[in-house]
Amino acid sequence: MSEESKIIDTLLARYDYAGVYDLLIELGLAETDLAYIVKSCRYAINFDFDSAIDIIYAAEDKVLLKKPIKNFIESLRNAKAGRAEAVFSELIESVKIQLLNDELIDFLGRVYRFKEAILKYLFIQRYTGNKRIDLLSENMSKRYQLRVLRSKFDIHNSNISYAITVYFEKHQADDFKAKQIIEILESKQMNRLIELRNDSIVGHGFTGISRRDLADVYGDPMSVIDQFYECLRLLELKVDKKKYDSINKFLRALSSHVKARQIMGKVIHFE
Predict the structure, then answer these.
(1) Among 26, 131, 171, 247, which one is least packed by beta carbons within 10 Å?
(2) Residue 246 CB: number of other CB atoms within 10 A?
(3) pLDDT given at position 207
(4) 205 shares a domain with 125
């Protein structure tokens, strides 16, 4: 394995696609299949699915036909269309990546959004009777759901998570799966995490966040992700737990063939 490949491998272990792409630019390899896929991943993890799709099609057809890439493109298209399983897969991967990279304030922001998104999905799923809801649909908007809760169920709290919880307590008390989901999302530990988020710069304050703060509240912070997976299972949503691990395995195989020779600081050969 070349020195470049070793560096790429280290960066991929952190899902640092921006770092890999910058390295490829320095090596003069910006217009390669490896670079196109890495750049696509860079946009995808930031929820810019349009750019991710556009960029990856610059790769050669033989690469696009590989199973990991075909699956990746399909997931991007589904996420762009608002398909719940694809979007939740991206969101939970984002939570995991931010935690692994100690981006703790952003991690807490994603936890807050994930909790709210699950509750909104649960509510509209039960209210409409539809098992599959597109996340881009009007009935997933906060404004729509608050209006329904006010007009149909006389629940007037503007905090959407709280209002939905009240709805299930009053009108769906016998829904066992919903009760399990709410017990997870409204647990003392989860609410303390949300309080940390509210006190931070992504909430309403300026307090810093450390790993120790998370551990004091939740023990192993990775258990948050396990509990989110459980919520999605109860919603009967199948998410890809290894999406970017599968892509990284493919990227490592590509990068293992990188051989760059530099003359006067300029890469002149790539295989």
Answers:
(1) 131
(2) 16
(3) 85
(4) yes
